[in-house]
Amino acid sequence: MTWIHELSPNKRPSIQWDREGILATSHRPSYPLLPPDNETVGIWIEAVLAAGIRSVLPILEYKQLDLYEGGLLELYRSHGLKTAHVPARDNKLPPLSSEELEAVWVAFQSLETPVLVHCNAGINRTGAAVHYILAKLDGRKP
Length: 142
Prior knowledge:
Elements: E1 2-3, E2 16-19, E3 23-26, H1 38-50, E4 55-58, H2 62-65, H3 72-78, E5 82-83, H4 98-110, E6 115-118, H5 124-137
Parallel strand pairs: 3-6, 4-5, 4-6
Antiparallel strand pairs: 1-2, 2-3
Helix pairs in contact: 4-5
C-alpha cells in the first residue's frame, strides 16, 4: 500500500493505493465537513485526478450523495470521472451485506481503472469493499 496524500491543512484527501494502478481508497470529498465545502470538494477532485484515478465508486447512502450541490455522482461526471454507486447504510455490522459486496464487485468491474472506492470516512464500508474486490481479483474466496 502506498499513501500518496495525507490529510492536511490544504484540504487534500488521503488517497491510499491498495493495488497500485488498479484500486485506491479515500474518504468522501470534504470529509468531515457537513455540509460539504465547495472549495474543499474541488481540491479533493483535483487531487484524485492528479493521482491518475479514472473512476470513483462511492458506497454511501442516497442522502449522503444529495449533500453535494448538484449531487455527488454528477459532480464526479462533470470532471470526467466515471462513476458507479452502491447504496449502503452507515454504522452497521457487518459494514456491507453479501448482496452489497457483490454489487460492489459488479460495479468495480464496470468501471475503468484505476478506481477509487470511498464511503464517508473511508474506513468501514470502504475496507469491506476493498477486501472483497482484492479477494476476487486474486481468485481467493472473499
